[in-house]
Design brief:
mainly alpha, two-stranded antiparallel sheet, elongated
């Protein structure tokens, strides 16, 4: 599972790296005032990364459990991880106000920050081989809920996939309006 997550994180990084080729007008284009532009999608991911990555790092460093050969997802963890994946008819999800970057002045530094977080995530995925993905628990943004470290990684990486898919949708809509 870790290798699959590492490969997906590399794909996410490559996808974001390509966004550096666009000008600021493209990166901030919106089809509707209440929709997110490309930089807002990435800033949303940065806000989640800022919440989860330090906690994951701390939990890995202080873990007393050892790695095991298999990870078993919890029912809730599996549900949350799978709910993040893009689908043909995506259900819009409401985000926490603190994680909503709409109408924030952003620049290309957002892409750099996302790429730095992806490097940190890759490092944490590699470090996590030495701890129990089942026993280490991570507090979610729903403070009353904790997930296994393995489920947290799956959720976080699938969340990145979801919003990079949204970025592709923004680019496609922009192309359609420019024709």
């Amino acid at each position: 599972m870790l290798q699959v997550l590492i490969e997906q994180t590399r794909k996410n990084s490559n996808h974001a790296e390509q966004l550096k080729n666009y000008d600021l007008a493209t990166l901030t284009w919106k089809d509707h005032p209440d929709s997110w532009n490309i930089l807002e999608c990435l800033e949303h991911l940065n806000l989640y990364g800022a919440f989860y990555l330090p906690q994951i790092e701390h939990k890995i460093k202080t873990a007393t459990s050892h790695g095991e050969p298999e990870f078993t997802s919890s029912f809730l963890g599996d549900y949350f991880a799978k709910s993040m994946l893009p689908k043909e008819k995506m259900v819009k999800m409401k985000t926490f106000k603190s994680k909503n970057p709409i109408r924030t002045q952003l620049d290309k530094k957002v892409i750099d920050q996302f790429l730095l977080q992806q490097l940190q995530l890759l490092d944490l995925l590699n470090q996590s081989r030495n701890v129990s993905l089942n026993a280490v628990k991570i507090t979610t943004t729903l403070s009353f809920l904790t997930l296994k470290l393995g489920d947290t990684f799956r959720f976080l990486i699938n969340h990145n996939v979801r919003h990079l898919h949204q970025v592709d949708g923004v680019l496609a809509k922009m192309e359609m309006t420019r024709r």
